[in-house]
Design goal:
single chain; alpha/beta; Rossmann fold; ProC C-terminal domain-like fold; 8 strands; 56% helix; 15% strand
């Protein structure tokens, strides 16, 4: 019996597999993955030496924890396919965006289901994942999910009703940070410094600043004060951000993204 089975072998599944192997969450031989694309499966076999199959039924029959890592538009078909083989001894984890726990439970029945919203920095082991417990999932199921996703970054637990906000902040958030990092780099380039140097300066500064927030325990407002000398360079930059209403722009960005996530989740 495998410890965990993946239905879908794409980039996020690959990141999770790498994370759980590197963290010794389980052994390679305890992992099985199914995918329709044989090239994808062959690459997974080559890179990780794990068990592979093109048959989703084998995943359910050979693993207790089932991680659904397929595109949202095919998830319902996958659920119908595996339904006859699912028992209440299984734990179903889903990373399919926009597909609610209720939708999965309605197909599979009274089965432990946990929905997770990871993000793409998981590909470099710096992911942010939110774990949401289903109706029939227990504390041990949540701990298992947290343990798995801790192998690719940070994890929080949340009620599913907040999933659209989480999607906007951490699911879509990387794109917004990429944009800001890139624009700061381009500003430096316009002032005369080469772009690649500016990009390195901007990206590492963003990374270090984020690490300060995560590890120092100091509130962002205080960190801003710590960097800012009254009447100095940083103070002038802060004034521009305030005058241009950067707070309103960022609120609108997150607000509209969250509303779009809500709309997609209802389809």
């Amino acid at each position: 019996m495998n410890k965990i089975g993946f239905i879908g072998g794409g980039k996020m599944a690959c990141a999770i597999i790498r994370g759980i192997i590197n963290s010794n969450w389980c052994r390679k031989e305890e992992i099985i993955v199914s995918d329709r694309n044989e090239e994808t499966l062959n690459n997974l076999k080559k890179n990780f030496d794990i068990n592979i199959t093109t048959d989703n039924k084998q995943i359910v029959q050979n693993a207790k924890i089932i991680l659904l890592a397929v595109k949202p538009f095919v998830l319902r078909d996958v659920l119908e396919e595996i339904k006859p083989y699912i028992t209440d001894n299984h734990v179903v984890l889903s990373i399919a965006a926009g597909i609610s726990i209720n939708t999965i439970e309605n197909v599979l029945g009274k089965i432990p289901v946990i929905r997770i919203m990871p993000n793409t920095p998981a590909l470099v082991n710096e992911g942010m994942s939110a774990v949401c417990k289903g109706t029939y999932a227990g504390g041990k199921d949540v701990l298992a999910a947290k343990s798995i996703f801790s192998s690719i970054g940070k994890v929080i637990t949340s009620e599913e009703k907040y999933i659209d906000i989480i999607t906007a902040i951490s699911g879509s958030g990387p794109a917004f940070y990429y944009y800001i990092i890139d624009e700061i780099a381009k500003a430096g380039e316009k002032l005369g410094l080469d772009y690649q140097t500016c990009l390195k300066l901007s990206a590492q500064t963003a990374f270090g600043s984020a690490k300060m927030i995560m590890e120092s325990g100091i509130a962002p407002e205080q960190l801003i004060i710590n960097v800012t000398t009254p009447g100095g360079c940083t103070a002038v930059g802060n004034e521009v951000l305030q005058e241009k209403n950067i707070s309103d722009i960022l609120f609108e960005t997150i607000d509209k993204t969250a509303k779009k996530a809500f709309e997609l989740g209802k389809k």
